[in-house]
Amino acid sequence: MSFRFSHVLHLFFILSFSFSILAHNEQDPTTKIMEDFSGYPIHEPQFSASTSFSVDTENLQLQIDELSRYSDTPAPSVTRILYSEKDVLARRFIKNIMASSGLSVREDAVGNIFGRWDGREPELTAVATGSHIDAIPYSGKYDGVVGVLGAIEAINVLRRSDFKPKRALEVIMFTSEEPTRFGISCLGSRLLAGNDALANALKGTVDGQSISFFDAARSAGYATDQDDLSSVFLKKGSYSAFIELHIEQGPLLEDEGIPIGVITAIAAPASIKVDFEGNGGHAGAVLMPYRNDAGLAAAELALAVEKHVLESGSIDTVGTIGILELHPGAINSIPSKSHLEIDTRDIDEKRRNSVIEKIHQSAITIAKNRNVTLSEFKIVNQDPPALSDASIVKAMEAASKELNLNHKLMISRAYHDSLFMARVSPMGMIFIPCYKGYSHKPEEFSTTGDIANGVKVLALTLAKLSLA
Ligand SMILES: [Zn+2]
């Protein structure tokens, strides 16, 4: 995808003078020669996009606050679980805002919501942006939300600037980015990327209350044809670009005082479930030489994970044991079963996979040495990393510069719907600072100013890519 400088100039004219883009579609050859000769553009913008772009920060904040009230836990925490009553109400809220921003709204079989602003050239593929609004228990109101409500506001910004898209612009609200209900993260975007295995697996998937995925989806008005989710799949190349605006969920931008993060890559996540089984027994009666303690096997494996991650030699390799359960879980009982869940990530897929292999070898060795059974070693998911598309990175950087906003190239260590959208579309992400890097808790916060900056960069990037 190429982006021509002439288009930027055109955009400035549209924004500055509300000229019709049609009238300025081809650059005057004389101007081109003069520019080549002087080395400077003849059409210096009269004022930058930053002065013509007005984000309605007050209304956007009101919307963010109102959306946060569709929650199953009291404010300031937000809990919004897939296909729950609050989720359905929140979806209605989003669709109403999309419609009142002049977008035509459609939904697919799992409830991915699309709001479309048609372009001048309907045969061209659209440029898309979006994120999610589901929220894990007791989390905050900005994660994902900024990339949905902020994206709709970016459309409003462009409308107020009299911008006319050449390629259609679409805002997508993805279904279930968080794995809370069915244990599958980025459910909507994984399906959009055309995942037959997932579509099949969902037929047998139930939540913690044994409610099937399809029953839950139907209760929310989706998946009426329960045998087939292939209608959700997008063909590769369905969009010419996809950009997601998101809070950083880390402290770097705030620490460095930089308002915009331009994402060059999303780290490759993997998760593993491990079970050990031993004989258990009474904590007093069974003497140490006669034990095979499943709990100690888990503890040893947890430390082995840390060792293998550190030995990769790269700061980008990380590993976490966020779940460690012992059975029967009594102080006077030797654990007869242990269950660990390991999350490991890297921007280098090969390096991450070699860490996974070492963890597996350690699990086998530990089981042997401790005379316990390794009853499960299951790699739940092992996703490749995604690289941002070079032309989208260029457009995001150019937009930041034109808006006089400092930016920093960075890696997303958390993963997002963008990781999966990258399989069907060139992808890019924009990060904004969040307070102390807090996320997934009620203290999660971004200032209206930081959100407005993100919305402006998104708006200008969408405009550039729409004209490309
Ligand atoms: Zn998110």
Automatic annotation (TrEMBL):
One GO term of the biological process aspect? purine nucleobase metabolic process
The UniProt entry, under Pfam families, shows:
Peptidase_M20
Task: Classify the main location.
Answer: endoplasmic reticulum
Enzyme Commission number:
3.5.1.116
Cofactor section: Mn(2+); Co(2+); Ni(2+)
Q: Has keyword Disulfide bond?
A: no
Q: GO molecular function of the protein, one example? A: ureidoglycolate hydrolase activity
Question: Where is it localised?
Answer: Endoplasmic reticulum
Catalytic reaction equation(s): (S)-ureidoglycolate + H2O + 2 H(+) = glyoxylate + 2 NH4(+) + CO2
UniProt key word Hydrolase: yes
Tell me the InterPro entries matching this sequence: Amidase_Cbmase, Bact_exopeptidase_dim_dom, Peptidase_M20
Q: Which GO terms describe its cellular component?
A: endoplasmic reticulum
Its annotated pathway reads: Nitrogen metabolism; (S)-allantoin degradation; glyoxylate from (S)-ureidoglycolate: step 1/1
Question: Signal sequence span per UniProt?
Answer: 1-23
- Keywords of this entry: Endoplasmic reticulum, Hydrolase, Manganese, Metal-binding, Purine metabolism, Signal
Oligomer and partners: Homodimer.
Homology family = Belongs to the peptidase M20 family.
What protein name does the entry list? Ureidoglycolate hydrolase
This protein's species is Papaver somniferum
